[in-house]
Amino acid sequence: MDIFSHLLGGLGVALMPLNLALLLLGCFAGTLIGALPGLGPVNGVAILIPLTFAFGLDATSSIILLSSVYYGCMYGGRISAILLNIPGDEPAMMTTLDGYPMALAGKASEALAVSAVASFIGATIATTGLTLFAPLLAQAAIYFGPADYFALYIMAFATIGGLMGVDLRKALLSAVMGLMIATIGLDPATGVARFTMGSYELFDGFDLIVAMVGLFAISEVLVLLEHRMSDKKDGLKITRLLPDWATLRSTLGACFRGSGVGFIAGILPGAGASLGAVMSYSMEKQFSDRQGTFGKGDPRGIAAPEAGNNAASGGALIPMLALGVPGSGTTAVMLAMLVSLNVQPGPLLFERSPDLVWGLVAALYLANVMLLILNVPMIGIFTTILRVPNWALMPVVVAVSVVGVYSLSRSVFDLYMLLGFGMLGYLMRKLDLSLVPLVLGLLLGNDMENNLRRALSISAGDWSVFVRSPISISLYCLTALFLAFSVWMSLRTPRPATPELQENK
Amino acid sequence: MIGRLFGAAIFVIAAIYLNAALTYEVTFGDPLGPRAFPLMLAVPALLGSASLVAFPGTAQDFAVGSRLLVQAGAVLCFFAFVFLLPRLGFLVATAGMVAALAMLMQARPAAAIALGGVAAPALWLLFDRALDLPLPLLGDWIG
Question: How far apart are the first and last CA of chain B?
Fold first, then answer.
């Protein structure tokens, strides 16, 4: 009942004309960003952040815009996956397996409709889960002391790389690099200038937004330039706009199973939407592929991963909102924006900023409905925009993000830093060092150090404070379990073929 | 090879970082001081980067030949933009960057210049006029 009244209050926030307009803009932009190969949710959100500052939006409106972009991307990725056999973003990779064969068989419209409905079901289930579980988690997290937070951060860093099946050393090194960058600047407790190399510009440390836009958006341009841009394929034509009910009904089971698997994958730290899609596709294949039709254009093979990646993106918002510990690259970037707007995420967010939390949750329900409308009857708009060539689109996108960063601080120094982070991001992606732990380190570094020092102040320097509370002990045990599990997984399964793509979740 | 070089570079940076961290004095009132947390980071960074030098692990292929030149061109183009922004002003610098990037992405030169010519004033109008975030229209060298 309590949740219901909060949700009604949130609906009031979400229905304000400005927020509603942002929601529509976010859904549209998100679908487009998701559909364009080369732009995924992380880059899309990173590029839009300077714009939200430029528009002078408050925290609630900004997070509504960015979350609707995040949800929209999950819908958009499937469009190019089905029509062009190119996943628009990383989580849509599994959708090409059955989507493109179906489109080749003349059923492109059915494939698009099935995937849109599956996306809707997945995202709605996840949003419902978010509504129910996030407040519970936040309530539990109120009992966390500084030492428990320190344990939570350790868990986030230890697990974020582990589940993706990448080199554990590299994930940890990336996290430590992020933490080291976060220590640059004036020490908040004593005022000592650390690692500033005599540069006054570094006294405040690196601007999170500059780092994010550089790491994700600028590095993406360099990745894009690795290959000649071929002329775009025209893609397959869509013949009808409304779905065929018999096909839809046959995929409902797959949608629900995919949503469940994806939702859990989303909550786990470091897993995110890509893993949600992969897990739900392979589960569904094991569960219902009796005639060997998967991979040849089975609608259930589209429904499961699409429900899975949408559910995962909803699930990933839970730890971000309730604990202030993001589970994926995109949520980390969103959290960075909140921090830049002086909103301290974590369990107290639900107490202090109910408008933000519940406005966001209500907005997500509305976003789903909007996205379904945009993606079923109005799909033609996106297939037309997809024909705009890359050379006309990417330079403008780059210019918007660079100008956005510059307009915030009017500092040329920040622009050089942007380039530096862009090149660092590119190099790390080529060397299979995931950027997500680095971003997490940058984001959580100061909090981690503050909690460490606060815990030791309380205990008067006694280090046993870190293993005294039952919460800390269970978090360390969970961390150990996760690490053991990921080592076991990496011994058992071969590396994914394209770990470079892991970033775009 | 690049993986090993990267590992070595991080190792050197971590060593400098460690050395700098050791100079910070432990002050009163705070049992830990500004030194301890950086030290806790420098040690795993040294170990992790050393292990990358010894075992670089997997890596993607870097671009070669003409593609590498195109990437270098893009980086140069960004640098030129940042350098020229205060000097030539927003319109010229942005139009130049957009046109150059478009050409690096195989646009025909006329189309690329047209794109830059349209995008730069449009962005100036959006940021400077509509959003009230002043941008230097003409730089030191012109205005």
Answer: 49
